[in-house]
Amino acid sequence: MSRAGSLPPLTAAALWGGMYVVSKWGFAVIPPVTLAFLRVVLGGLTLFAVVRLTMPNRSFSRDDWKRFGVLGGWVALTLVTQFVGTDLTTASQGSLLTVLTPVFTLLLGVSILGESLSERKGTGMALAVVGTLIVLTGRYDFSTVGNGNLLGVLALFAASFGWAGYTVWGKPLVRTYSALETATYSTLASIPLVAVLVPFELAAVSFDASVTLPIVGAVLYLGVFSTAAAWFLWYRGLEELDAGVVAVFFFAQPVVGAVLGALLLSESLGPSFLAGGAVMALGVWVVSTAGE
């Protein structure tokens, strides 16, 4: 696998890792579904602007629009369940999303797309899971993993499976058209699906509607960087790589989050970060070179 092929999904994971620091600046005061709506609106509009400026005006078949709509459904499922699940669970339970998403993606890639699951790829994925768990143990108190809301845990499982579905079912469209077009129109398709839930949430919960600079910055980061840029880069990896190979770069997310936390929030990394990061990196290397 070329370095050029691995760089986009790795960069996407790094951008998602930045969400950990952004959350410390207060964007969680916005109700979860409303936050998901703001995220896809900003992300969709940003992507659409780039498409109109850089791509030819292409016409799609009705079947293609249906497939974009299916991807939009995966997006809506992922974001709503991810934000609701995170809101209802502990940090240790929320880390389930990081561990399960690549595993689900690998399994769906094998079963839906017919991708190969070699012994080397399976070993690398297992190493990456173990390394990531070691990193997460250093950041979170896993004695609380049994606490929290069962509905929240189930939502996180759904979010993990949803992003795996978005990755796997998006691959044929990415290969037919482009990563940019597929990310754009699937994100736009998700907007009305998330929007219909917002009024119900706003009517059911109370929240502080004050607008501050950190909150505005957090929402902009979520929409422009961790959605528009990261989703395009994630799909860009699928233009060259199998879904199961792209998935392993998802494990870089907590590592980047820990590094940024140390640099910007003065948090300590500890020996578990170094040990886990080394094992995770080995696993990523094993999977990414499985085809060589």
Low-confidence parts: none
Q: Major β-sheet, in short?
A: none
Number of DSSP strand runs: 0
Radius of gyration: 18 Å
Distance N to C terminus: 7 Å
Average pLDDT, to the nearest integer?
Answer: 84
Strand content: under 5%
Q: Judging from the principal axes of the Cα atoms, what is the shape?
A: globular
Q: What class would the helix/strand composition place it in?
A: mainly alpha
List the secondary-structure elements in sequence, H or E. Answer: HHHHHHHHHHHHH
| Helix fraction bin | over 70%
Number of helices: 13
Which descriptors would you attach to this protein?
mainly alpha, 292 residues, 0% strand, single chain, 79% helix, globular
Descriptive account of the structure:
With 292 residues, the chain is mainly α. It is built from 13 helices and no strands. It has helices at 3-24, 32-54, 62-88, 91-94, 96-113, 119-139, 150-176, 179-195, 198-204, 213-238, 243-248, 252-265, 270-288. It is globular and about 50 Å long. The mean pLDDT is 84.
